[in-house]
Amino acid sequence: MRTRNGESVLARAVRIFEAFTPEEPALTVSEISRRTGLHVATASRLVAELVSYGFLTRDADRRVRIGMRLWELATRASPSLSLRNAAMPFMEGVHDVVGHHVQLGVLDGDEVLFLERLSAPGAVINYTRIAGRLPLHVSSSGLVLLAHGPAELRRRVLDEPLHRYTPDTPATAARLRAVLVEVRRQGFAYCPGYVHPDALAAAAPVRDASGEVVAALAVIVPNEPGATSVVPVVRTAARGLSRALGAPDASRPRQRPGDAEAV
Amino acid sequence: MRTRNGESVLARAVRIFEAFTPEEPALTVSEISRRTGLHVATASRLVAELVSYGFLTRDADRRVRIGMRLWELATRASPSLSLRNAAMPFMEGVHDVVGHHVQLGVLDGDEVLFLERLSAPGAVINYTRIAGRLPLHVSSSGLVLLAHGPAELRRRVLDEPLHRYTPDTPATAARLRAVLVEVRRQGFAYCPGYVHPDALAAAAPVRDASGEVVAALAVIVPNEPGATSVVPVVRTAARGLSRALGAPDASRPRQRPGDAEAV
Fold this sequence. Notes:
The structure is a homodimer.
Chain A lengths: L8 H11 L6 E2 L1 H8 L3 H13 L3 E3 L5 E3 L1 H9 L2 H20 L2 E8 L2 E9 L13 E3 L4 H8 L3 H9 L13 H14 L2 E4 L6 E9 L5 E10 L7 H15 L19
């Protein structure tokens, strides 16, 4: 079912969904048309159909938003929901003790996708948001996922130019390789000022019943001396969550081919 | 862009998404075909295209699931995310003190849709789940939303047969009408054993800057004498959240045409 220029209707609908961002969650049809490159008439027709399914909604002022029904269908059977639900009590425990930000990230493509974040009022700066992404090399969760991810992913990331957020970002292949070896050896990532000079992140791996790393649990706190005390907190929560997911004894991690030392 | 039998490609894609449920989050293509009534070849082709956009994914064993990308796009710009984020600290506070379940529901169609739920291990029975729904007349959140919702919604719900979950469910129009008047008068819903004999729910309205009720905050606890003590807790949190959303002074609710007393 292709349109004249060879693009499918579904591909166009995907482009419409992609036009909405956290910064601009409400768009007019002409804004959607501009952002997607679709004709206004085409955009208007597709928007009307998606509104009829509840996948988009219209404001009182006719601006279009993501619909509740899309959220509901995407969430209720999402594999991420059960992981997130299992993680919540552990995240709440960390958040009660540490404050600031606690977040849960998974590998998606070559980035970390954040499934959940708990934040205290007045917490330190944090670019993460729920359903937001960060590059793997800069985020503590990303470094954990990269260290334990497929070897070809590491090769690809190490081959690409690495964006330097601050002077402390591991933005060369040699430095990143060394960081990944440390993350594997220590069992956690400790990232002072990698994303922002004022913020320090620490993350630990979350394993499922197969022993595979399926997520990373992280805390973001002010980048100050003494912040190392968050490391045992986040490690304990990540291990507790792993055990809740049926992971084997995490104190004896198995060595597998493709692990970070191999890079 | 209609197919031969007049159904659009988008309508078919919607049916595919709807085939996945919390109980069956992974389906084979032939199961999808059976559930949607689509030809296996059609289902297979649409699934392949949706997989290519990350809207669906395939397991190692070729079963299909909701994709992370669909969740990401549905969540990151969702109007529900900002409400849910604003609600989280209030929900966590209630959860720390009350335990059991704390949940946030919004009106969607003639049902309550739950945006968030925090649950303690070993908490009392609760049929609610995130991105799950309940009828308005049986759930404490639903009763709050119904009491403060449009008059035509109340007329419609009162006209329909009301499912009786327990002997205590308000399942006649007369009883439901009386319950709604009480909810309006008291400023909260108190629902002992409406959904299950062992569970008691209490909910209070959440208002936004316009003063409109946009959500309900609820707690579910064991149905025991003394449970009334949760009422001021949930009311306080719901008012705090309302103030955080910019609501006017909630201690002086405005009387509007179409409020419950009018039914």
